[in-house]
Structures are given as C-alpha cells and as structure tokens.
Amino acid sequence: xxxxxxxxxxxxxxxxxxxxxLKLFDAFGGEPRRFVYTSGTVDCFQISIEPPEMYGAERxxxxxxxxIETEDDAEIHHGWLVPIRSLGSTLxxxxxxxxxxxxxxxxxxx
Length: 110
Fold this sequence. Notes:
Layout: H1 10-20, E1 25-28, E2 31-39, E3 44-49, E4 53-55, E5 58-69, E6 77-83, H2 87-102
Antiparallel strand pairs: 1-2, 2-3, 3-5, 4-5, 5-6
C-alpha cells in the first residue's frame, strides 16, 4: 500500500515541481513522502504533501507549509485539507504563501 500511496496525485505534484523548478523529495526515513524546499536569502520553507485519505465521502490531501529556518526564528505553519481535484491550485497557494512569508516584516527577537 505504501508504494501506491501517492499514485493518484504524483502527476499533479510532478507537473507543479517542473513548472516551478522545484526539487521533489520522495522519501524520508525509508517511507514514501512528498516534499519540496523553497528558500530565500535566509528563510527556508518546506511544502509537504500527505498521501490522500478518505474524509467524509471523498478522498482529500493534506498540504502543509512549514518554516524550516527564518531570520527571526518564527515558527510558522499553514495547512490545507483539500479534495484531490484541488491539489494543483492548493500547491500554487502554498508556494505563493511561502514567497509572501519570505517578504514579511521581521519580528524582533526578544
């Protein structure tokens, strides 16, 4: 089952990565995973895609945006749970959100 986890959504993920020239990581700890990193001069964010699961009557995908490294040590997480048919547009939103966050005003360190 693990090898088939992303079968239905890999074409969408692959096309999105190609469009934005993102390197796709497809495993972590020996398990199938899907994630990319997007970096600015200092800030680095990860966009991860969980395998589809049943939510109610349809299959949905969880997309997460995580701050990995930020100049102001901000802890940032955004998540979207969307039907499979909305994955492509949600990946675009996640990437645009990461780009916006790279330009945010910094919070002074305390």
